[in-house]
Write a structure and sequence with these properties.
single chain, alpha+beta, Immunoglobulin-like, four-stranded antiparallel sheet, DUF6266
């Protein structure tokens, strides 16, 4: 026996048997619930599941940012869904060796209509510090007031949470020094940056700068 709720205000939802009906953002969809398998998962299935879990962990630090600043909703896919799709596609499942291979240069945490950053250098001038330099490529426009956001990820450590910074540094400043936790000393860190409109209306695409060893 199943139950379906049909309301002009709230839409249709519920399930009967294996059929599940839901209203997602005004669009009515139905799915068939998969049967539970009595067979233990294969090594390849476990690898795919492990990749998904690692992607969720990778995005945890900038989850709320991605919901707002990773493009626009496309069909039933939200900005967060699209951001997750990018990271999933950037982590390769090596089915022969049963390992995950991250391609950091394919990863993006921000997507929008803002002017893309033009990074010039990254360095670690002092212990636990990361310096990022860029060009002010919007001279004389209101985009000079865009503020900087930064994403850091420890190399080959997909189990480790990423670090996300929403700064007060503006594009016109052309440089920033971030102080990291001591645990990142002597670690290779991957670096991405983007800029957000001062009124939080839109963001730029993120740019992958590369990796650097924190002294």
């Amino acid at each position: 026996m199943g139950k379906i709720n049909d309301s002009i205000i709230s839409g249709t939802s519920g399930r009967t048997g294996r059929i599940v009906v839901a209203n997602v953002n005004g669009i009515e969809i139905s799915r068939i619930r998969p049967k539970k398998s009595s067979k233990p998962p294969t090594s390849k299935q476990l690898l795919v599941k492990d990749r998904f879990n690692k992607v969720v962990e990778f995005m945890r630090s900038y989850r709320e940012y991605a919901k707002k600043f990773y493009g626009h909703k496309v069909g039933l896919k939200s900005p967060y869904n699209n951001a997750m799709g990018n990271i999933l596609n950037s982590i390769e499942c090596d089915m022969n060796n049963l390992t995950l291979i991250p391609h950091y240069d394919r990863m993006h945490f921000s997507k929008g209509i803002g002017v893309s950053p033009q990074p010039t250098a990254i360095s670690s001038p002092n212990p636990y510090t990361l310096q990022i330099d860029w060009e002010n490529n919007t001279a004389g426009t209101s985009d000079e007031d865009d503020y900087l956001v930064v994403l850091l990820a420890e190399d080959e450590q997909l189990d480790a949470q990423t670090v996300f910074y929403k700064t007060t540094t503006k594009r016109i400043d052309e440089t920033i020094q971030l102080t990291l936790l001591p645990r990142y000393q002597n670690k290779d860190m991957h670096v991405w940056i983007a800029f957000v409109n001062n009124e939080d209306l839109y963001a730029s695409n993120s740019i992958y700068i590369g990796s650097i060893t924190i002294i």
